[in-house]
Amino acid sequence: MSHRSKVSRPRFVLNAGDMFYWGGIEAHCGLSTLKVTDPKEQFTKVFEQVYTGEGLAGVPWLGTLGNHDFGERSYTNGWDQIIAYTWGPGGRWVTPALYWRQRIHHADFVADFFFVDTNFNDVNKLCSSARLQTNGQNLHAHSYKADNIQDANCGVAGPTSLSECVSWFHDLWSAQLAWLEDELYASTAKANWQVVVTHYPPEQGWQLATWRRLSAMYGIDLFVTGHRHQQEVHPAGTGPLGDTAHVVSGGGGGITSEKVPSVSGHDDQYGFMDISLSRQQLKIKAISHGGVIRSVTMVKPRKATHGPNGITSTRTPRSTTKTNGITSTRTPTPTTKTSSTTSVTRTSTSTTSFTSTSTSTTSVTSTRTSTTSATFTSTSTSTSTTSFTSTRTSTTSATFTSTSTSTSTTSFTSTTTSTTSATFTSTSTSTSTTSFTSTTKTSSTTTSITTTSITTTTTSISDAFARRGAASALVMLCLLRPWLFS
């Protein structure tokens, strides 16, 4: 990835789960506030120090959870801390909830990315009374210990007991399925592209019929999945979803690939997908661990058969909410025992200095819906050149208390040259310390995790399979025109 990113200059990375292999964050779910910094060392070794390199600096890392992030044969590992790290130092980690949507605005098109939790597929393992124990470095020589029964309470973040585990995952799937259908319905009128990012491939498990129905009705263009430790590309018309293409990019890490990789890299075991997106097409390049381009696949946008813009439809969204002038479909039904309390006092002024060869807007609007149990108390004063309005909630049991003062001045100088759909040249300079779009920041906080940036951030990511425990499903997105998050 580090070599490829120097050429393709991706705008963000999609991660389809199993971020921390073998058994997720080595902490118990539902940590108290005093222990919220425990997973920091694991994030540093597995993520912050691994994914660095030219071309990926400042690229957001957007993800969803896999079965190993929960614990593989338990649900009590620190999966809620994976979500909480969205508000941690650095700011490039973006996994704000178990399920959520990210909208990307371009000069001439809009793309919606839906992050969905499909771990209900493995509920029998996750809710098992025998928890997998590893034996040193040989992670395939393991024993079982019946300790998932004891202290199996994730508090407000998740199941409070082993007996509640199966129903919790069932309710989670039911709630997000209702949310997803409403979001897809609305997306057909607002976005040119609909992409679903989830851990399990659509044909693996019992959800295939649901995915086929949603793909046909709402014109889902692409599924990005992981789970299997290999690289697969299924063009439209060849896979289980009919006219919807899907990829399996599970070769980003873990311990072993499905088959033995070759030294030269002429195989489909370890690797990643390099995706270019324009209004007319989506181009998928499958890159092996040896830097070999294994295949190039073109995807054309699908047409929905259901939706609000004069498309045949027998349903309407369940409800509509309006936040900061932006109308969106219903907020997902909260899962078991969730609560959210937010107290924010903020004073800000903003100006904009922007020079560019292409027309762009510096106002970013974001609406994210999800389940949450996080509590934040924050007081900040800032001066910023960027306007960012965001509504985001997440599933986490962490509590943060932060006091920060920041001052920023942002100046962008951008030159964009596009000759083909695969060429993007951009030069930009920015300095910022605001808590929502930042490249540098100054903050003081009463805990070791600060409540800073949420979306467009500026640290770095690289080699997809450089170390053991690296994320196992990576996709680089190379966007061919000026873009904005919302």
TrEMBL record:
Gene3D superfamilies: 3.60.21.10. GO terms for molecular function: hydrolase activity. Residues 302-365, 412-442 are annotated as: Disordered. Residues 9-230 form the Calcineurin-like phosphoesterase domain. This is Calcineurin-like phosphoesterase domain-containing protein. Pfam families: Metallophos (PF00149). Residues 312-365 have a biased composition (Low complexity).
